[in-house]
Specification:
heterodimer; A: alpha/beta; six-stranded mixed sheet; four-stranded antiparallel sheet; B: alpha+beta; 2 domains; ten-stranded mixed sheet
Chain lengths: 224, 375
């Protein structure tokens, strides 16, 4: 993972959703730069555009206008298939609601990441990672058999397994108690210390304190 | 990974998959059962036609038709060669010809209808419709056998000729029950009428719509000592029966295919709806459109293949077990039609894939960001 290069660069980005009740500008002229190896938290009230910003950075959305470059790759220029390949190689996602496949075990969910592969070596790596995250005795369990903290740690393992240079976390501690929330942030901090870039959306001040920088979004604009 | 996902997801959502499978299997079972029973039914039609008698009968001109309708017995006789001459002639476009020599006899204190049958002349290698009895053997009507306590393989003597009982005929509820079928040669010997017959029974598929007057005119020059009679109701029944079966089978099969496709489509749509977030997640994890498409289409194709095999087994079993009583088919003629398995294995996955096509396309078109954000 390189340093002194832009991990994320947004230039006057606007994202408009077209709904039944008219247009909604989720992001309205946002410019933002995140260096590689940086740990950035995004805060803001509901509907301020935090999740949209995260999904744009994860090449899940295209901007309505403006430019988005992630790891020096212009997202707007990529086709849907190219963006999928880009995500598989470069981005790890963590969601508030974990989004684990209910029919897969902890180990299988970890290996679900398209960049992870399923070979014997990958399985060994995944097992080691799960053990490191305190899930060594849960590898064969299904999500329904896990606590919320264990589910989120599984989702973290899935995000980390392909060693992507960028982790995008959308309220990863939103459904967790303080102890589990702290564990998740510790994992993210450890990843960051190893050179990874983290862009974290959170409502919780205690969580954003762990980041190097906090960006505040309000009504689709950067407020500070 | 895709195959693992496919298998695990199917196992997780067993009910949806089982319902998909059941729909396909039911359609295939119906298709297989209809075709299997239909094939047997064709054989059965021959048997029914035999039961109803052939639809044309050529009698000696000497036969008084009023007496014939009263007794079913012809008067006078014809040379045996007339059957072959009739079969070769383009005058009558029939498929089966049987020369017979029949007479009412007293045997063992009972009245019996002795009927000598020649080897059937069939056009285009068609399966014989009537009985074929080897020399020295006989087939005994149900009532006659019952009254005289006759069994298969019994040795009997009729008008001085020893005969082996080859079979006892099933109860028919008609004159067939007192009939004694023998080979034409044996009958000619017994009745002392070598080389003679007294009726030619014919089955003509094309006679429906052809007037008896035309047939009579054509026959007058070919067989001047004969007259022809058509069992008109039988001819009509036969034509109508064939048309009806053909029409309804094709409608039912078409409806089953459309119904199965719609059923699979609805279940696939529900599956896509239920898995919106999962699809969004897979997209977020870098799964491309084709992998998502393969996930849903693969599910449908797998259901199609398993449904085809299960449907074939169920349909065949149904046809064998219940087709016979429903269609009044002689049970041994209902046999598995293995060619339908091949067709089912091609058509069912295709129909299932077609049914799942729109839901699979919806899955691919699903905006992952929206799906993930909505949750």
């Amino acid at each position: 993972m390189g340093v002194n290069m832009k991990a994320i660069l947004l230039d006057n980005v606007k994202k408009v959703y077209h709904g039944r009740r008219g247009e909604v500008a989720a992001l309205d002229g946002v410019s933002l730069s995140v260096e590689r190896g940086e740990f950035v938290a995004i805060q803001g009230p509901s509907g301020s555009g935090k999740s949209t910003l995260l999904l744009l950075c994860g090449a899940m959305l295209r901007p309505t206008s403006g430019a988005v470059a992630v790891l020096e790759q212009k997202i707007g220029a990529l086709s849907s298939a190219e963006r999928a390949r880009f995500r598989a190689r470069n981005v790890g996602f963590v969601f508030q609601l974990f989004h684990l496949a209910p029919y897969l075990t902890v180990l299988e969910n970890t290996l679900l990441s398209n960049g992870a592969g399923t070979g014997r070596q990958r399985r060994a790596e995944a097992t080691a990672l799960l053990e490191r995250l305190g899930l060594g005795d849960r590898v064969r369990h299904k999500p329904a058999e896990l606590s919320a903290g264990e589910r989120q740690r599984t989702a973290m393992a899935r995000a980390l397994i392909g060693r992507p240079p960028l982790i995008l976390a959308d309220e990863p501690t939103g459904n967790l108690d303080p102890q589990n929330a702290s564990q998740i942030i510790d994992i993210l901090a450890e990843y960051h210390q190893q050179g990874g870039t983290v862009l974290l959306v959170t409502h919780q001040p205690g969580v954003s304190e762990r980041a190097q920088r906090v960006i505040r979004l309000e009504r689709g604009k950067i407020a500070g | 990974m895709i195959l693992r996902l496919l298998g695990k997801e199917i196992w997780h959502r067993k009910i949806n998959f089982a319902l998909t499978l059941a729909g396909i299997a039911a359609a295939v079972a119906l298709f297989v059962a209809l075709l299997t029973a239909g094939r047997a039914s064709e054989d059965e039609t021959r048997r029914l036609m035999l039961k109803m008698k052939f639809n044309l009968i050529v009698l000696p001109k000497a036969t008084d038709m009023a007496a014939f309708w009263a007794t079913d017995m012809p008067q006078g006789d014809l040379p045996e060669e007339d059957a072959a001459r009739l079969a070769k002639s383009p005058a009558l476009d029939a498929e089966h010809y049987v020369a017979t020599l029949q007479q009412k006899i007293d045997w063992q204190g009972r009245q019996a209808l002795l009927t000598g049958v020649a080897r059937e002349i069939s056009s285009g290698g068609k399966k014989a419709m009537g009985y074929e009895v080897p020399e020295g053997a006989c087939l005994v009507g149900y009532e006659l056998a019952n009254a005289l306590n006759l069994k298969k393989k019994d040795q009997i003597e009729v008008l001085g000729t020893p005969l082996r009982v080859d079979n006892i005929l099933v109860e028919d509820g008609s004159k067939e029950d007192i009939r004694l079928y023998v080979n034409l040669r044996d009958a000619q010997k017994m009745l002392n009428k070598p080389g003679r017959i007294n009726s030619i029974q014919a089955l003509s598929c094309q006679c429906y719509g052809q007037t008896v007057a035309d047939l009579r005119k054509q026959l007058a020059t070919l067989l001047p000592d004969a007259q022809i009679v058509e069992y008109r109701s039988i001819a009509l029944a036969r034509a109508e029966q064939r048309e009806l079966v053909a029409r309804y089978v094709s409608y039912i099969v078409l409806a089953a295919l459309v119904g199965a496709a719609a059923w699979v489509g609805v279940l696939a749509f529900l599956n896509v709806r239920e898995r919106r977030t999962e699809i969004g997640l897979l997209r977020a994890l870098g799964y491309g459109s084709w992998k998502i498409f393969a996930l849903f289409l693969g599910r449908a194709i797998l259901a199609g293949v398993i449904g085809a095999a299960a449907g074939f087994a169920v349909g065949t079993e149904w046809a064998i077990r219940y087709g016979a009583p429903v269609f009044e088919i002689v049970s041994q003629t209902v046999a598995p039609l293995y060619s339908t398995l091949g067709w089912a294995l091609v058509i069912a996955p295709l129909v299932a894939a077609l049914g799942s096509l729109i839901p699979a396309m919806l899955a691919v078109a699903e905006d992952p960001a929206v799906a993930l954000m909505e949750e």
